Amino acid sequence: MAVLAEPIAQPKRSSLWSRAFESRNCLGAMFMVPAVAILVLFLAYPLGLGLYLGLTDTKIGGAGRFIGFGNFVSLAKDSVFWLSVFNTIFYTVTASIVKFAIGLYLALLLNERLPFKSMIRAIVLLPFVVPTVLSAIAFWWIYDSQFSIVSWVLIKAGLLTRYIDFLGDPWNARWSVVIANIWRGVPFVAITLLAGLQTISPSLYEAANLDGATNLQRFRHITLPMLSPIIAVVMTFSVLMTFTDFQLIYTITRGGPINATHLMATLSFQRAITGGNLGEGAAISNAMIPFLVAAILLSFFGLQRSRWQQGGRD
Amino acid sequence: MTTVDDQSVGMDYLESFPKKFLRVYVPLGLIIFFLLFPFYWMAVTTFKPDAEMYDYEKYNPFLIAHPTLEHIKKLFVDTDYPLWMWNTVIVSVSSTFISLFASVCAAYAIERLRYTGSRYVGLAIFLGYLVPPSILFIPLAAIVFQLGLFDGNLALILTYPTFLIPFCTWLLMGYFRTIPYELEECALIDGATRLQILVKITLPLSLPGVISAGIFAFTLSWNEFIYALTFISSSENKTIPVGAITELVNGDVYHWGALMAAALTGSVPVVILYSFFVEYYVSAMTGAVKE
């Protein structure tokens, strides 16, 4: 039987093998063409071009000269640039910490037994779904200096005597945009952490209950360690989105008052597109990259470490 | 999941209703109030006549005494808003379909064809997901200008996939991974080509994943702002977010009614779509993070 089948099977097997070779690499390459073409032309190439533009004095509508680190030298002496670096770090750190705290708390609340749970979850996610610019316009109106509803309520409640100048004072403006960012970011953190909470086996809590663990102990020794890998990823994304934020600031303050809320992203837009200095704007964007890489590494590996300390996979 | 419910019923016996009310419902209510208030304020302002909007003494600001459609009418008749809406729809739909097509092919190749180096390509695509638009828009503006795409829908349709493809590919790779190899092997033995396998076996089985990726990609492109702001200059080519922020503000005069009407009507289509596909949306959002 085997001897009989051999001569027929032999040529087929070799053609199959060649087909397999084709399906592995040639076919693989063909399947990759659409994605790779778009990503190379509009992602990888601009990334490289941006790095180069940062080293030139390109203006809109004119070819630039290579000036080495000239842009960075002038930025190093530019107090507005350093203010934007400070603002970006302040914005990212405060907003991320509060987003994490409220997000985790909300996730724990949503993990309770609740009526209409899926509907509540759907509602909670709304701020993340609605276009950021459009909800930022609503915040802009809430922060209006004359007709702010927040000021009005506080005055009626007798807590204030005059309207708050939300966007006219540097620190008020900074906190105002941080609050708007928290509002938008909390749902993302809460819902993704909730998904993580739902994967924790209830038997762990039962065992802890039998051993007489308190609520706080169960949170500290079961929930937090089990959740830490997903916390690392969620917070990495959150930090990344906050650090590179553009929409909220551009809509609510445009960087004002007196550059007090300019982030590096909005400053690079102002210098490059509004001001026409593409080279300088690109240099500001490029200056974000080391901060960005540091933020990713810090939040990702810093929190990831607790995973292998507990004997988890890598 | 059922065990979770059983356990919490058991726990509930130990907790009186007032205690649970204080511990769970009160903070939950406060947070939801904080999250929903801007939408309420948006809606109230949209339907409030100007006379009431700027007079908090005579009218309670939280209510509308004489609802009006004046702001919405002004928005649709006196501005290019219908065109912005049309552009946003065209751009979002096209870029979503382009991204889905490219991502399905790429994810299948990476996950199932497993060509040499596919792991590294997969990793590179994930890294592409971490590159924020805020550092790409300046060089992209130069490229868009060189290609002659400036100030047209095509500029957005071709650049939005740069953040959609990495996301969709990453998500679909996760879904494709759950499909048993045996099914594909059976089809291969029956003489199906790779393309037939993808179209007739892999895609139908991972349809939830494709829908999730599509819904999420659509909302992401509907929300996109910085590219649209940079690459589009004439009013009739703008998308809703850009048009609302640049065309409805004349110097120091803010038409709050029209602005809020634009914010509300620009959000409603996404929210409606989202409400039909909440589960898919959530699984897209959490799926991308869980991997």
TrEMBL record, chain B:
GO terms for biological process: transmembrane transport. The keyword rRNA-binding does not apply. It is found in: Cell membrane. It comes from the Bacteria. It is a multi-pass membrane protein. Residues 85-277 form the ABC transmembrane type-1 domain. Keywords: Cell membrane, Membrane, Transmembrane, Transmembrane helix, Transport. Its main location: membrane. InterPro entries: BP-dep_ABC_trans_perm, MetI-like, MetI-like_sf. It holds the Pfam family BPD_transp_1. One of its GO terms (cellular component) is plasma membrane. The keyword Signal does not apply. Belongs to the binding-protein-dependent transport system permease family. PANTHER family: INNER MEMBRANE ABC TRANSPORTER PERMEASE PROTEIN YCJP (PTHR32243:SF18), MALTOSE TRANSPORT SYSTEM PERMEASE-RELATED (PTHR32243). This is Sugar ABC transporter permease. It comes from Bradyrhizobium manausense. The lineage of its organism: Bacteria, Pseudomonadati, Pseudomonadota, Alphaproteobacteria, Hyphomicrobiales.
